[in-house]
């Protein structure tokens, strides 16, 4: 690399390495120890040296700054963007169940971007398909040892995966996974299931194929397809009976693999348990993978249950004679049991309000996809307490807004009550 990609600096931590070097917000970092930077991954790797040489751009002029880094000391830089060299790598597939393609109109613009960037998979655990990697991308993943990666497999049968994703490269998934495993890259995988497409015997094959790559492939999360009112008409959601049968199928595999591999390996998302009424697994059933898999809807309920005593104390500290707890329809029945416990212990009434999702369609039942409009409409008809509590997962992005652009402040003003946010796994986000 010889071309510079200016990395605009948003903030500099006081007394950090970067601050000692004289870097200030508004500077652009061009190179570190002589290495041009493509993204924050390059920054992290180059910053590991004890003596650092920064090439920055300030007011149109280049300048070199120097500092010595103490062992384990963070660099202290926050960038405006994490990727410097090129736009986000977007998805080249046309998946039948793509949630972005099912988005309601009029939401925040970032929600319509189909992210499929291996760098964000390494940095944040975003799931990628591997279908858009160029030879240079493969070389970089292996050379810089970008591990772990999170990969959407869906099906290991080539014809099934190609049929789901409508991309002929999708059929190469097993060879691609073996290449990564052979390079020592650890992989977490997911399979989003659509009834009649990649469940049943196809799921059996997917689990067996991926388990055959353990320990390089570390886990497989099994998630039911999420369908909004704008979904592909060829798809449908799982019935309760189908969800129960699929859960039992996965748990049978999990039990067998625990005997052969020493871990469960395949983990159903919480929705299967809540839909079927099956008992929530113990924390040990997740084999020390929590909270790493929580973003995929796996183990969130277990964490909520285990942390309930702490959660209850925090909610009690909010006070009021009555509190209103906002959640989606999926988690509401279980949350009402905890609301009863909360009232018995604290004397504070807690009313759980399940908000139907009219924005996406009532088949979307999770809390994190609730819109501000639906929250307002539902709570406007309720007898609200002095305090409203909602999961912070409803408010996303750098401006902390709902999918349709409502901030906490705006919702509070409309409802005439303070809204207190709690981080997942609180209140079933």
Summarize the SSE layout with pairings:
Layout: E1 7-12, H1 17-21, E2 28-32, E3 35-36, H2 40-46, E4 51-58, E5 61-68, E6 77-79, H3 118-124, E7 127-128, H4 135-143, E8 149-152, H5 158-165, H6 173-182, E9 187-193, H7 200-211, E10 217-224, H8 240-260, E11 266-268, H9 270-276, H10 300-306, H11 308-316, E12 322-327, H12 332-346, E13 349-354, H13 372-380, E14 387-391, H14 408-415, E15 419-422
Please describe the structure with a list of short key phrases separated by commas or semicolons.
single chain, 429 residues, alpha/beta, Pdz3 Domain, TIM Barrel, Rossmann fold, 14 helices, 15 strands, 31% helix, globular, disordered C terminus
Mean pLDDT: 93
CATH topology of the largest domain: TIM Barrel
Count of helical regions: 14
CATH top level class name of the largest domain? Alpha Beta
Detailed description of the structure:
The protein is α/β, with parallel strands linked by helices and 429 residues long. Strand 9, helix 7 and strand 10 form a beta-alpha-beta unit. The longest helix has 21 residues. It starts with 6 loop residues before the first strand and ends in a 7-residue tail after the last strand.
């Amino acid at each position: 690399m010889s071309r510079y990609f200016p990395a605009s600096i948003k903030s500099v931590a006081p007394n950090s390495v970067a601050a000692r070097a004289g870097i200030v917000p508004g500077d652009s970092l061009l190179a570190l120890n002589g290495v041009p930077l493509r993204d924050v991954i390059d920054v992290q790797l180059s910053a590991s040296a004890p003596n650092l040489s920064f090439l920055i751009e300030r007011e149109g002029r280049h300048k070199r700054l120097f500092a010595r880094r103490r062992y384990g000391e963070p660099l202290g830089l926050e960038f405006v963007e994490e990727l410097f060299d090129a736009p986000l790598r977007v998805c080249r597939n046309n998946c039948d169940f793509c949630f972005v393609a099912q988005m309601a109109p009029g939401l925040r613009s970032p929600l319509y971007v189909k992210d499929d960037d291996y760098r964000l998979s390494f940095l944040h655990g975003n799931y990628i398909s591997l279908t858009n990697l160029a030879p240079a991308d493969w070389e970089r993943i292996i050379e810089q040892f970008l591990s772990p990666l999170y990969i959407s497999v869906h099906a290991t049968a080539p014809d099934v995966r190609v049929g789901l994703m409508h991309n002929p490269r999708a059929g190469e998934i097993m060879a691609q996974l073996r290449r990564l495993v052979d390079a020592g890259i650890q992989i977490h995988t997911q399979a989003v299931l659509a009834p009649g497409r990649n469940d049943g015997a196809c799921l059996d094959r997917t689990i067996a194929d991926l388990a055959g790559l353990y320990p390089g492939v570390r886990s497989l999360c099994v998630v039911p397809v999420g369908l909004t009112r704008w979904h592909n008409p060829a798809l449908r959601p799982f019935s309760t009976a189908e969800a129960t049968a699929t859960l039992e199928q996965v748990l049978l595999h999990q039990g067998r693999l625990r005997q052969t591999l020493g871990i469960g390996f395949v983990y159903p998302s919480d929705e299967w348990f809540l839909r079927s009424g099956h008992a929530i697994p113990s924390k040990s059933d997740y084999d020390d993978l929590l909270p790493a898999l929580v973003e995929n809807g796996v183990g969130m309920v277990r964490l909520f249950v285990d942390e309930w005593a702490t959660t209850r104390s925090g909610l009690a500290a909010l006070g009021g004679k009555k509190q209103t707890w906002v959640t989606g329809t999926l988690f509401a029945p279980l949350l009402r049991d905890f609301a009863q416990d909360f009232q018995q212990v604290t004397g504070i009434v807690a009313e759980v309000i399940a908000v139907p999702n009219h924005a996406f369609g009532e088949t979307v039942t999770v809390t994190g996809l609730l819109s501000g409009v639906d929250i307002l409409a539902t709570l406007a008809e309720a007898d609200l307490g002095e305090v409203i509590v909602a999961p912070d997962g409803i408010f996303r992005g750098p401006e902390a807004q709902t999918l349709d652009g409502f901030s906490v402040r705006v919702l509070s003003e409309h409802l005439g009550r303070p809204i207190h946010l709690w981080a997942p796994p609180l209140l079933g986000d």
